[in-house]
Amino acid sequence: MELTYLREIIDNIIAMKHQKLCGPEQIQLTDLLIAKDNQLKETLKVAADQAKVNKKMDLLRAEVEKLDQDIQHLQRQLKEAEQILATAIYQAKQKLQSINRSNKRPVPSEDLIKFAHRISASNAVCAPLTWQPGDPRRPYPTEPPASQQNQFAWHPSGEIHMAVGQGSVPMDTRNHTKDNEDVEVMSSDSSSSSSSDSQ
């Protein structure tokens, strides 16, 4: 459309005098050309603004993708933390149940000391007497045998008998006799020294 107006103006200029348009028609064509030029400039300005907006949209789109990746990474970390916390809570509940069971059935410290003495005096820290290679039992006291009642019995002869099946087996404590004597000597020495200090 603008080219048509421009062509008419140019043709009017180069035409012969008798072919030239009159003044008002030329002014009208010039005004139309100026209006179209202004409209074209406005359109180009809008296009430039839209290009800037499109560039901003591209930047925002890239930023959204980056933030989306960060959110997915944080989501994976939260899932891992949730699993770790769930495991910790489960273990804590198990510990609390164990503590509650222990509080309901407290064991006096004297019984623990006696039991420890029985274990050390009867070589119970070693493998069981009937233990053979390939035996699934562990070569040290486990909870079921350690919690059995009357597993060890003292005899007047000074021997310790361990209950095995329907009978009992004497335990050799000769290795611990000297240690026990040393303990008794040390305890007597400490008692005598404490009595002398008090004087």
Automatic annotation (TrEMBL):
<keyword id="KW-0175">Coiled coil</keyword>
<feature type="compositionally biased region" description="Low complexity">
    <location>
        <begin position="187"/>
        <end position="199"/>
    </location>
</feature>
<feature type="coiled-coil region">
    <location>
        <begin position="50"/>
        <end position="91"/>
    </location>
</feature>
<keyword id="KW-0804">Transcription</keyword>
<dbReference type="Pfam" id="PF10018">
    <property type="entry name" value="Med4"/>
</dbReference>
<dbReference type="InterPro" id="IPR019258">
    <property type="entry name" value="Mediator_Med4"/>
</dbReference>
<dbReference type="GO" id="GO:0070847">
    <property type="term" value="C:core mediator complex"/>
</dbReference>
<keyword id="KW-0805">Transcription regulation</keyword>
<comment type="subunit">
    <text>Component of the Mediator complex.</text>
</comment>
<dbReference type="GO" id="GO:0006357">
    <property type="term" value="P:regulation of transcription by RNA polymerase II"/>
</dbReference>
<protein>
    <recommendedName>
        <fullName>Mediator of RNA polymerase II transcription subunit 4</fullName>
    </recommendedName>
</protein>
<comment type="function">
    <text>Component of the Mediator complex, a coactivator involved in the regulated transcription of nearly all RNA polymerase II-dependent genes. Mediator functions as a bridge to convey information from gene-specific regulatory proteins to the basal RNA polymerase II transcription machinery. Mediator is recruited to promoters by direct interactions with regulatory proteins and serves as a scaffold for the assembly of a functional preinitiation complex with RNA polymerase II and the general transcription factors.</text>
</comment>
<comment type="similarity">
    <text>Belongs to the Mediator complex subunit 4 family.</text>
</comment>
<keyword id="KW-0010">Activator</keyword>
<dbReference type="GO" id="GO:0016592">
    <property type="term" value="C:mediator complex"/>
</dbReference>
<dbReference type="GO" id="GO:0003712">
    <property type="term" value="F:transcription coregulator activity"/>
</dbReference>
<keyword id="KW-0539">Nucleus</keyword>
<feature type="region of interest" description="Disordered">
    <location>
        <begin position="128"/>
        <end position="199"/>
    </location>
</feature>
